[in-house]
Structures are given as structure tokens and as C-alpha cells.
Design goal:
Helix content of chain B: over 70%
CATH topology of chain A: Cytochrome Bc1 Complex, Chain D, domain 2
Distance between the termini of chain B: 71 Å
Distance between the termini of chain A: 64 Å
Order of helices and strands of chain B: HHHHHHHHHHHHHHHHHH
Number of domains of chain B: 1
Number of helices of chain B: 18
CATH architecture of chain B: Up-down Bundle
Radius of gyration of chain B: 24 Å
Largest sheet of chain B: none
Number of helices of chain A: 6
Largest interface: A-B, 80 and 92 residues
CATH superfamily of chain B: Cytochrome c oxidase-like, subunit I domain
Strand content of chain A: under 5%
CATH superfamily of chain A: Cytochrome c-like domain
CATH class of chain A: Mainly Alpha
Oligomer: heterodimer
Strand content of chain B: under 5%
Number of strands of chain A: 2
Order of helices and strands of chain A: HHHHEEHH
Largest sheet of chain A: 2 strands, antiparallel
Chain lengths: 207, 554
């Protein structure tokens, strides 16, 4: 016996198509009109390589990159920066907005913490610089050597965390990761704010 | 632009509401009425009043039958079922055996892998210097391994396996193209394995819920089609005219998933904020339009089937199904509340999230009203215990989801462990519980053997239930405290980290209980499949090959 009435499947597909139109297609037209923020620089080669390490090690699972509006949360007061706008993410693929704040928001970590040495030590052993941190240590991003060779980036550890002998050297990929973290600086003024204001929309705010 | 956007928003809302009203009208005016016989298609002649649960022992089944006959009155309850019908069922099981057994056994393997990865990740939250020497054991790699193993390995595979079996059983039709489904399962397994290894080696795409590399995505699309097409073909060639509600969910899930998966995986199409929108639209739809249908399809079959009585209201089940399709497909962007995305889009998702109350209540009334007065049956039917617990968790997790999408509530719960707790209540408390129950029912029929140690079923139930309760309750509390500290401008950020500490330890305990439960379950399944348990009254489900029917015209 042949039955042709698979109408419910077509209707089910139609409904999903409607949702796709609303949630994917229409926003893509709206967002296509948005340009990169004027003060935003594209990532350099080393920063992009570092971004790859950020993705590889899954930093996004604990760190968001989307400061909220001061009316919603005290993100700005914590030094996490002004609310982000779509133009701030113009060069981001894949996106790394994140959904967890097990650790702080990192969208402006480069502003808060410009020191390469601090970042390197923190990655090797977070508790060496932040006593209450629950971030995992990343010793595999470093090499232990009996002594430093030419061109090695040696990190200086507090005695409690330093190896008994030899030196700890950052791998090139780790230096790239820190270059990316230091580049997370959206301290330029936004031309797209207030993006999320209830009374103004993107069109009114954008140039 | 503002008027355009507002008009659009109002338009969408009106379309959805109009759709809902058309649906309610057509149900109440009998347009979609399928007659009082429709919900009874899952029963054979004279079967009403007869419970069925292959997972129970003979003694349990006898008690189950007595309990039900005390409360329900069916004219044929004392007539035994036609043995011809039972033979037919045995034959259908035999024909679906290979792909269903293969899919479910594979899914169990991924469940174990996923649970162990999850447990390690959980412990790392309170032991951050544990297992840090190798990149492959790092937190940020094991976490996506956990998620992808349980979503694409465990739930997707067990869901597809149960769906194959349900389709054949409900439509009383031999599974079409079982061989294709077996090959599809090979490919799917290769995909999961390759994907997990890629993540461990550091080749994640970095997109949550879509971490597998693109070649794995392609494998899934091909494998999914090889498993899904047999289902659609079986529906087309069915012997029963009416499509029972479970079939709607299964049929729709198998066409929804490829659309979602393909749209979300178009490479280099989206950047920045647009990418985040697509990402969360996909991730939430995977739960609602792929995993949820598996859970609901199974619950809609097993609850009435085990109790030997039709579902409470068949009309309501229509509302539940179309409501899910209409509203769930638009809820995803509540993951970006307060984020740098157009406000109207987020508002649309919040409205849809709240509207989800309609289908959720419809399903809840249907499931729980069918159960009403039969709670004693839970003691005698292992399948029912798992499935009904799962159905209750569905009501709970869905209402919580609607609540959590409101801006005021979301401001606290977003970015915290409370979201993770919520996700586990859904994927574990709801879908996994129903899948466990389904396997307890199906596997004895496929192996034609009984569960060797009825005690172990109880142990599994207690471990799984206590595990998810400890997990959910403590992690939710910890998450809310964390969120409140984060909103308190006077509290330093470290307070929001330190306040969660005891709750993170409790989470590991909950996760440990669940993992232990899975090991017990997996052991039990292995003994069942090997047939190496103690002999009681096996083999339980005789299979006598039916004489081949000669073509009428030949």
C-alpha cells in the first residue's frame, strides 16, 4: 500500500523555512549594512595565529567577548570596556562571543593587562599571579630547558612555581596567543553606539 | 528602519498567533479530527487493558496487569491477544534488529566516552592543576569532546535507533532499507570518532556545538540520509493508514536536522555577530527540533503502550507538535540577550520562548493525565519509571527555559553555571531518561532474551536520578549565586568565582553518580547481548519465522 500523504513533513519544513527567513536571512541583510568600527584594526598575522591557539585550547568555554550595557550589568565598572557593537567584530571568524563567564570577559583584556610577561606567567601557572584563579594551567605551551638558547623567551616565575633547575621558555605559538590577547583592545570610541538602545536602531546610529 | 523592524516583529508575532488559532480552530471544529480510533492504532485487536513491558520480570508483569485492571475497565482485558499479532511483532523486531542494535550499542559506547570526558572536565573546575601536562587532556579540548560525544554520539544515535524501531513497530511495517541504515551507522561512527580525535588534536572549528571539522559534517549529512531515508520510505510503504503522533515527531526531526545542519555549516558565509546568530539559532534548534522529537516520540508511544490505554487527548498532541514546530524554531537567540545583536531579533526569540508554554503544557497534560491514577505501575515497569521521570523533567525544563529567557531572569543566569545545569536537565533528565527507558523495552525484544539482573535496572535508575538531581540542584544554586555576585558592582569578580566552589564539587559528585549509572547500564547491556546472564525463563520472546506469503496474483 502506497501512501503519499507526507504533507505534514512539507508543512514542518515550511515552518522551519519561515524561522530561517526571520532569524538568519533578514538579520544578514540588516547586518550587511554595518561596517567595521573606524578605530578597529584587522588582526596581524601573528595575532591571527594566536587566535587559532585561543580556539584550539577552548578559551571561549570560560571567557566571553561581549561586554554588556552598563544599564544591564556593571561590566564597564569592572574595566571590561564599553558595550560592544557589531562593528567591533567585523574581522572575527569564527566568532568568539562565548556564553560563559567562569573567568572574566576578555574583549578588552589588552587594555587591562598590556604586559606580555604577565600573560605568559599567567598561562604557565595562573595561580602564580592570581591566587584565587581556577583557570587550568597550560604548561604544555612552554618548554623546560636546562638553559636558555639565543632567541628564547624565558619567563620569570615566583620561587614556588619555578622548576628546581633550568628555565621555562614560551613556545612561539604561546607568544602568538599573548599577541592576540594584547590586541583585544576596543578602546576607540564607537560610531555605532548606542546600538542596543531601546529608542535608537542601528540605522539611526550608524553614519 | 525602526518602523520597518517593528512592523516585521508585529507581523511575525501575528503570523505565529494566527497559525496557532487556525490550528486550534481546525482541531475544535473537527477539521483535523482523526476519529476516536486514531490514538488506538498502537494497539492490536483486544489489546487495550493489556500492559506490555518486556523489561519487567514475569512477576512484575503480573502485578502490572492486576494494578491496571483494577483501575481501568476494558471489555477485552481478559481476552488474550491474538498470537498472530504477537508473531507479527516478533518478525518486525527481527527485521529491524541489525540497525537498531548497532545504533544503540554504538550510542552506549559514546555515552561512556562522553561521561568520562564530562567528569574529568568537571573535576578540573575544582582541581585546575590536574592533568595539565598534555594538550589533549586540557580543559578546553575535553569539554567539547564531552559535548559532541553525548550530543552526536549518544543522543543522536540512540534517538535514531529508537526511531527506526518505533517507526517499524507503530506502522506495523517491515523496516525499509535496514541495510542502508547499517551502513549509515558505520559512517556516523566514523564521523564521531574522527570528530572527537580532531578536537583532541587541536583541530576544533571553535564554534560551540559545531566543533567537528567540515569533513565530519559531510559524513553526518550522508550518514543521516542513509538512516533517515529508510524511515521516510517505511512511512510511505506503511501498512497502517493513520500516522500516530510519534511518527510526526520522528518524520519531522529527520527533515529538520539536515536543514539546520547545512545552513549552520555553510563555510565562510557568516562573520562576527552574524556568525554568533547562526551559531545559537542552530545550537538551540538541535535540542528542540532534533533531540526533543526523539524523546517525545518515544514517550508518546511507551506511556500509553505500557499502560494498555490510549493517550489522554489526541487533539492536544496536535497542538503540542505544531506548537513546537512554530515556536521552538525561533527561540535560539535568547542565548544572546544583552549581546551586540539587533534587539528586535532577541525580542522575537524571547516571545517565542514564552509561547513555548503552549505546546509544553499540551504535552504535559497529555502525558501526565494518561499516567494519572496509575502511579503504582511505576513500581512494576522499569521502562515506565524511566520514561515517566523523563516526561516530568521535560515539563520542568521547558517551563524553566521559558522563564530563563525573560530579560530580568536571564541577566542573572546568563554567563553562569545555571545555564549548564539547565542544559543537563534537558538533555539528561528529559531525553536521556526517556532513551534509557526505551532501551529497557526494546533490547530484550531484539536479543530475544530477558534482562539478566532486574536489580541492576533499579541501581541504574537510582544512580541516574540522584546524579541528575544533585547536579541540577547544586549547580543551579551555584550559578544563581555566581550571577548575583557578577551583577553586584561592589563585589570584586573573584567573589563570583569563589562562591561557586562548593557547588562545583557537588557537580562532580552528581556527574560521578551518573557515570557510575552508565557503567552499570553498559555492563547489563553487554551481558544481555551476549546472553551470558543467569537463566530464568528465557528465551522470553519467541520468534517463529512466518511462512512467506505467496503473491496473490501468482
Amino acid at each position: 500500500m502506497k501512501h503519499k500523504n507526507l504533507g505534514f513533513i512539507i508543512a514542518a519544513l515550511g515552518i522551519l523555512g519561515f524561522a530561517t527567513l526571520l532569524l538568519i536571512v533578514i538579520p544578514s541583510f540588516q547586518l550587511a549594512e554595518i561596517k567595521a568600527e573606524e578605530g578597529l584594526k584587522p588582526y596581524t598575522e601573528i595575532e591571527l595565529a594566536g587566535r587559532g591557539i585561543y580556539i584550539r585550547e577552548g578559551c571561549v568555554y570560560c571567557h566571553s567577548q561581549q561586554p554588556r550595557d552598563p544599564r544591564q550589568a556593571p561590566d564597564k565598572a569592572r574595566g571590561w570596556g564599553r558595550p560592544s557593537t557589531p562593528g567591533d567584530y567585523a574581522y572575527d571568524y569564527p566568532h568568539l562571543l562565548g556564553t560563559m563567564r567562569t573567568g572574566p570577559d576578555l574583549f578588552n583584556i589588552g587594555v587591562r593587562q598590556p604586559s606580555e610577561e604577565w600573560h605568559l606567567v599567567h598561562l604557565y601557572q595562573p595561580r602564580a599571579v592570581v591566587s584565587w584563579s581556577i583557570m587550568p594551567a597550560y604548561p604544555f605551551l612552554f618548554e623546560r630547558k636546562p638553559e636558555a638558547e639565543a632567541g628564547d623567551r624565558v619567563i620569570t616565575l615566583p620561587p614556588l612555581y619555578a622548576p628546581a633547575s633550568g628555565v621555562v621558555v614560551a613556545k612561539p605559538e604561546t607568544i602568538a596567543l599573548v599577541a592576540y590577547l594584547k590586541a583585544l583592545k576596543r578602546d576607540y570610541p564607537s560610531t555605532q553606539l548606542p546600538f542596543r538602545s531601546p529608542r535608537k536602531t542601528v540605522e539611526e546610529a550608524s553614519p | 528602519m525602526l518602523p520597518t523592524v517593528s512592523i516585521l516583529l508585529v507581523f511575525t508575532f501575528l503570523v505565529s498567533i494566527a497559525g496557532l488559532f487556525v490550528l486550534i480552530w481546525s482541531i475544535s471544529s473537527g477539521q483535523l479530527s482523526m476519529g476516536p480510533e486514531a490514538p488506538k492504532v498502537i494497539f492490536d485487536e483486544d489489546e487495550l487493558g493489556h500492559p506490555e513491558d518486556p523489561a519487567g520480570t514475569k512477576a512484575q508483569l503480573a502485578s502490572l496487569e492486576t494494578t491496571l485492571q483494577e483501575s481501568e475497565r476494558y471489555p477485552h482485558a481478559h481476552v488474550s491477544i491474538h498470537s498472530q499479532d504477537l508473531d507479527e511483532r516478533a518478525e518486525l523486531d527481527h527485521l529491524a534488529r541489525q540497525p537498531v542494535l548497532y545504533l544503540t550499542l554504538s550510542s552506549l559506547l559514546w555515552l561512556i566516552v562522553g561521561s568520562i570526558a564530562g567528569l574529568v572536565v568537571s573535576i578540573k573546575f575544582h582541581a585546575p592543576d590536574w592533568l595539565v601536562d598534555f594538550g589533549a587532556l586540557g580543559f578546553g579540548r575535553l569539554r567539547p569532546v564531552h559535548l559532541n560525544a553525548v550530543i552526536y554520539g549518544w543522543i543522536s544515535m540512540v534517538g535514531m535507533g529508537v526511531s527506526l524501531w518505533l517507526t517499524s513497530r507503530i506502522l506495523r511495517t517491515p523496516l525499509y532499507g535496514a541495510r542502508w541504515a547499517v551502513w549509515g551507522t558505520h559512517l556516523w561512527n566514523v564521523g564521531v570518532l574522527a570528530g572527537l580525535v580532531s578536537i583532541l588534536l587541536g583541530h576544533s572549528t571553535g564554534i560551540e556545538w559545531l566543533e567537528f571539522p567540515i569533513f565530519v559534517d559531510l559524513l553526518f549529512v550522508i550518514a543521516g540520509a542513509m538512516i533517515g531515508l529508510p524511515i521516510l520510505k517505511t512511512i510511505q510503504n506503511r501498512r497502517v493508514h493513520h500516522l500516530y503522533v510519534s511518527i510526526w515527531y520522528i518524520g519531522a526531526a529527520f527533515v529538520w536536522f539536515p536543514v539546520l545542519f547545512l545552513v549552520a555549516n555553510i563555510p565562510d558565509q557568516y562573520t562576527g555577530v552574524q556568525h554568533a546568530i547562526v551559531n545559537w539559532w542552530f545550537a538551540h534548534n538541535v535540542l528542540g527540533l532534533w533531540l526533543t522529537p526523539f524523546g517525545l516520540a518515544a514517550a508518546y508511544y511507551f506511556i500509553p503502550k505500557i499502560l494498555g490505554k490510549p493517550i489522554h487527548s489526541y487533539q492536544l498532541s496536535l497542538l503540542g507538535f505544531w506548537g513546537l514546530a512554530l515556536f521552538y524554531s525561533q527561540v535560539g537567540l535568547h542565548h544572546l540577550i544583552g549581546g551586540p545583536v539587533p534587539t528586535w531579533l532577541v525580542t522575537l526569540s524571547i516571545v517565542s520562548s514564552v509561547m513555548m508554554v503552549v505546546p509544553v503544557i499540551s504535552v504535559a497534560v497529555n502525558h501526565h493525565m494518561t499516567m494519572l491514577g496509575h502511579f503504582r505501575a511505576l513500581r512494576y515497569s522499569p521502562t515506565l519509571a524511566f520514561v515517566v521521570t523523563g516526561a516530568m523533567m521535560y515539563t520542568l525544563v521547558s517551563l524553566q527555559g521559558s522563564l530563563q529567557s525573560l530579560r530580568t531572569v536571564n541577566t542573572v543566569s546568563h554567563f553562569t553555571h545555571a545555564t549548564v545545569a539547565h542544559a543537563h536537565l534537558g538533555v539528561y533528565g528529559f531525553v536521556s531518561f526517556i532513551m534509557f527507558g526505551s532501551l529497557y523495552f526494546i533490547l530484550p525484544r531484539l536479543t530475544r532474551w530477558e534482562w539478566p539482573f532486574p536489580r541492576l535496572i533499579q541501581v541504574h535508575y537510582v544512580l541516574a536520578l540522584s546524579g541528575i538531581l544533585v547536579y541540577f540542584v547544586f549547580l543551579s544554586i551555584g550559578g544563581v549565586l555566581q550571577g548575583m555576585k557578577m551583577l553586584d558592582a561592589a563585589a570584586p569578580f573573584q567573589d563570583s568565582v569563589l562562591v561557586t566552589h562548593p557547588y562545583l564539587i557537588a557537580r562532580s559528585i552528581g556527574g560521578g553518580l551518573m557515570t557510575l549509572g552508565h557503567l552499570v547500564f553498559a555492563y547489563h547491556v553487554v551481558v544481555l547481548v551476549k546472553g551470558s546472564g543467569p537463566a530464568r525463563d528465557r528465551p522470553r520472546f519467541a520468534y517463529r519465522p512466518q511462512p512467506k506469503q505467496r503473491g496473490a496474483g501468482a
